[in-house]
Design goal:
Layout: H1 5-11, H2 24-27, E1 53-58, H3 60-63, E2 64-65, E3 69-70, H4 72-87, E4 91-96, H5 98-110, H6 113-134, E5 139-142, H7 151-166, E6 170-174, H8 201-210, E7 215-220, E8 240-241, H9 261-274, E9 278-283, H10 293-298, E10 305-307, H11 317-333, H12 336-352, H13 354-371, H14 376-382, H15 386-402, E11 410-417, E12 420-428, E13 431-436, H16 442-453, E14 456-461, H17 466-480, E15 489-491, H18 498-501, E16 510-514, H19 517-526, E17 540-544, H20 550-562, E18 571-577, H21 584-595, E19 599-602, H22 604-608, E20 628-634, H23 637-647, E21 652-656, H24 660-669, E22 674-677, E23 696-698, E24 706-708, E25 714-721, E26 741-742
Parallel strand pairs: 1-4, 1-7, 4-6, 5-6, 7-9, 8-10, 13-14, 13-16, 14-15, 17-18, 17-21, 18-20, 19-20, 21-22
Antiparallel strand pairs: 2-3, 9-10, 11-12, 11-26, 12-25, 23-24
Helix pairs in contact: 4-6, 5-6, 8-9, 12-15, 12-16, 12-17, 13-17, 15-16, 16-17, 20-21
Protein name: Delta-1-pyrroline-5-carboxylate synthase
GO molecular function, one term: glutamate-5-semialdehyde dehydrogenase activity
GO cellular component, one term: mitochondrion
């Protein structure tokens, strides 16, 4: 059902008509060459960005609304997305049958078939025309029932479509004329709100293959393909569907607005896939996603069900998450001593296999440097050394000892009534997702904390540390296997985008980002219904008070800035009391920074005091992550506190002074996760705090704040033990009374 010859001529833009009234491409089709076959379908979603020729099939439920005619809002959004992709240089085609659905809705009231369908068809076509014109995008609506039955005309039709695409015109293939009404119209109206129409999925698939399209997007009123009918308890959306998986699918009833149903869509999709066209089935009716569903699919985002001929060797990330959750529950049920044994085993492996670890890390370093894509701070974070591995092993052994009273510890015990006792106990959060850039030392740290707290763990590291992460994960699973829970920690090594991982709100309980401020901000924006623990920036301050010791000030400033400039707890802004300018303490601090090759940026007030000043800072909220810092002048301790609150990131801030009263005021007033007196900002670390290890530093106001170690990965549950108690026992007519007595909890008490 594509287009009659005369109907086509009347609808095409005038610039491609000939004087005899026939399209140029039909009159001279013998001179037109078919484009070269596009080859195999795409194997991964990320490759969909390369799709040039795209067919968008709009199901009837997408372009119409129950009892409300055309879904104008959806249509406008779809037209906008198609126009945007067309302007990117892609070749877009639309297949739609919505006008018939609209016409049949009206038919329920009129039962005047031919007139109603014509009116609806005309209305729908005009709406699409107006919408495309608003985007200054030329289009051609094509109708021809003969396409489905006359093979000799299909070649001409395909040539015409090629010519339209060549001229940057969007063809809209409208299938209405192919629909044969039921012999008895009333028989199809009984007991339903919206009349069914003929299935056009096979037509869209056929068009996509014959036009050698790279991608077919089939939009309907369901999220994609489920392994069982949507709405049933165990139904799961299938991310990627492979030929041969049909036997694992149980199909439900069809949509109320289409005849074919999901089974017909799958058959059509597999047929198109076999013909070399990639296919995605997705929801085009959901109000939250309709505005970007097509562009999201083309960008490779995890939307709907992607059909692929290439089945990965390993499990999908969803399967990995399920495996981790199952093994994590077993991990949580182990004795504390057994979890400690796993952590000690991992510590031993880090020292025993250090040569293999450092060899893998050397390969990563060489590749990262050769690529030229990474800054020096990123390279520094990527680097491992024998000293780092030894430090990691010490921290893990420390954690193994301290974690023995973590899971199942009784925090509170209450006698609610006689023989009715309530306990609050610590339990794991569930499944953690930790996303980290560079920093391969993060993997054993976080793994050990997950083991100690009984949490399942998904790890997503950067490509730059792929070799190091791989061997560290293998060693982690080797340690876990001594108690049969190797699957509790999974390394995501597929082409999964971080944004897609952040959408797995039904599988993941907490996201912990470890990396640049941009990474953390991106994850916080992308997370859909999953809490994110972390900080987006580490703009740490050191304030040198007018009563500071020269030696302490120099030592604290040097260590805070120069010990490890790439760390999030390194000093980025040095605040100097105004009275210290042009004094020996100030001169010595400046000399020390120059000796350490620290580049200095002057804050606005500091610059005003100088005749020849360093480069003025562009922003007082800058996290340099390198041997650079800003120096600014303040009038008092209170002025320093105000500056920190205005420009800081609530991470770690320091005062250097000999005045105890001033120091205590600073410690109380500064609203940061860590506030120090006469000590380096670099102490803001889980290992240095005695936590054994940390998953990161949180600047959040709830749950966990500062260096997050074992305690930050636990939550609680309430356990009530009774003897047949009922709430009615405590009513006015009941025989029992609430006591609510606190019961002392001995130290180290477990439920």
């Amino acid at each position: 059902a594509m287009f009659a010859r005369l109907a086509l001529c009347s609808r095409l833009p005038s610039r491609i008509r000939q004087s005899n009234g026939c399209p140029a491409s039909i009159r001279a089709y013998s001179q037109v060459k078919f484009p070269r076959p596009h080859g195999k379908s795409f194997a991964h979603r990320s490759e969909l960005k390369q799709a040039k020729r795209i067919v968008v099939k709009l199901g009837s439920a997408v372009v119409t609304r129950d009892e409300c005619g055309l879904a104008l809002g959806r249509l406008a959004s779809i037209v906008e997305q198609v126009a945007v992709l067309q302007n990117q240089g892609r070749e877009m085609m639309i297949v739609t049958s919505g006008a018939v659905a609209f016409g049949k809705q009206r038919l329920r009231h009129e039962i005047l078939l031919s007139q109603s369908v014509r009116q609806a068809l005309h209305s729908g076509q005009n709406q699409l025309k107006d919408m495309f014109q608003s985007w200054r995008q030329e289009h051609a609506q094509l109708l021809d029932r003969a396409y489905m039955f006359d093979c000799s005309r299909q070649i001409k039709h395909c040539h015409t479509l090629h010519e339209l695409l060549r001229m940057n015109i969007v063809p809209i293939i409208n299938t209405n004329d192919a629909v044969v009404p039921p012999p008895v119209p009333n028989s199809d109206l009984q007991g339903v709100n919206v009349i069914s129409i003929k299935d056009n999925d096979s037509l869209a698939a056929r068009l996509a293959v014959e036009m050698k399209a790279d991608l077919l997007i089939a939009l309907s009123d369901v999220e994609g393909l489920y392994d069982s009918p949507p709405g049933t308890d165990d139904a799961k959306l299938i991310d990627i569907f492979y030929p041969g998986d049909q036997q694992s699918i149980t199909y439900g009833t069809k949509s109320r607005v289409g005849l074919g149903g999901m089974e017909a869509k799958v058959k059509a999709a597999l047929w198109a896939l076999q013909g070399g066209t990639s296919v995605v089935i997705a929801n085009g009716t959901h109000p939250k996603v309709t505005g970007h569903v097509i562009t999201d699919i083309v960008e490779g985002k995890k939307v709907g069900t992607f059909f692929s001929e290439v089945k990965p060797a390993g499990p999908t990330v969803e399967q990995q998450t399920e495996m981790a959750r199952h093994a994590g529950r077993t991990l949580a049920s182990l004795l504390p001593e057994q979890r400690g044994e796993i952590i000690c085993c991992l510590a031993e492996l880090l020292t025993e296999k250090k040569e293999e670890i450092l060899s893998a890390n050397k390969r990563d370093m060489e590749l990262a440097i050769a690529s030229g894509r990474f800054s020096q701070p990123m390279i520094n974070r990527l680097s491992l050394s024998t000293a780092k591995l030894n430090s990691l092993a010490i921290g893990l052994r420390q954690l193994a000892v301290s974690s023995r009273d973590s899971v199942g510890r009784v925090l509170r015990r209450t006698r609610v009534a006689n023989n009715l006792e309530l306990e609050q106990i610590t339990v794991p959060i569930g499944v953690l997702l930790v996303i980290f850039e560079s920093r391969p030392d993060c993997l054993p740290q976080v793994s050990a904390l997950a083991i100690a707290s009984g949490n399942a763990l998904l790890l997503k590291g950067g490509k730059e540390a792929a070799n190091t992460n791989k061997i560290l994960h293998q060693l982690t699973q080797e340690a876990l296997s001594i108690h049969g829970v190797a699957d509790a920690i999974q390394l995501v090594s597929t082409r999964e985008e971080v944004e897609d991982l952040c959408r797995l709100d039904k599988l993941i309980d907490l996201i912990i980002p470890r990396g640049s401020s941009k990474l953390v901000r991106d994850i916080q924006r992308a997370a859909k219904g999953i809490p994110v623990l972390g900080h987006s920036e580490g703009v740490c301050h050191v304030y040198v008070d007018s009563e500071a010791s020269i030696d302490k000030a120099i030592d604290v400033v040097r260590d805070s800035k120069c010990d490890y400039p790439a760390a999030c707890n390194a000093m980025e802004t040095l605040l100097i009391h105004r009275d210290l300018l042009r004094t020996p303490i100030f001169d010595q601090i400046i000399d020390m920074l120059r000796t350490e090759h620290v580049k200095i940026h002057a804050g606005p007030r500091f610059a005003s005091y100088l005749t020849f000043s360093p480069s003025e800072v562009k922003s007082l909220r800058t996290e340099y992550g390198d041997l650079e810092c800003c120096i600014e002048v303040v009038d008092s301790m209170q002025d320093a506190v105000d500056h920190i609150h205005k420009y800081g990131s609530s991470h770690t801030d320091v005062i250097v002074t000999e005045n105890e009263e001033t120091a205590e005021q600073f410690l109380q007033q500064v609203d940061s996760a860590c506030v120090f007196w006469n000590s380096s900002s670099r102490f803001a670390d889980g290992y240095r705090f005695g936590l054994g290890a940390e998953v990161g530093i949180s600047t959040a106001r709830i749950h966990a704040r500062g260096p997050v170690g074992l305690e930050g990965l636990l939550t609680t549950k309430w356990v009530l033990r009774g003897e047949g108690h009922t709430v009615s026992d405590f009513s006015e007519q009941g025989s029992m009374k609430y006591l609510h007595e606190n019961i002392p909890v001995p130290q180290g008490s477990f439920s």
